Amino acid sequence: xxxxxxxxxxxxxxxxxxxxxxxxxxxxxxxxxxxxxxxxxxxxxxxxxxxxxxxxxxxxxxxxxxxxxxxxxxxxxxxxxxxxxxxxxxxxx
Length: 93
Hints:
This protein is mostly helical. The protein has helices at 2-9, 22-48, 51-77, and strands at residues 15-16, 19-20. The protein has a two-stranded antiparallel ribbon with strand order 1-2. Helix 2 (22-48) packs antiparallel against helix 3. The longest helix has 27 residues, at 22-48. The relative contact order is 0.18.
C-alpha cells in the first residue's frame, strides 16, 4: 500500500484543500482491491483446490474490504493532524 500511496501523491485529481474527495478514495480503494483480489483468489484457490471457491472468497473479501477502506480514508480526511496540502508539487513528501 505504501507504493500505491506514493504514486497517488503524484496525482492531484480528486484532491481538494480539505483532502481527498470521495471519488479519489473510491479509485484508490478499487485499484488496491484489484491487486488484492488476484492475490486472495490465487492463494485461496490453491489452498481449497477450487478456482470457484477461491473466486468466491476473493469476491466477498473485496466487497467488505473496499467498503472499509473508503470509510477509513474518508475518516482520515476529517483529521487535521499531519496535513500539509498547500503547494503540493506532486511528490507528497
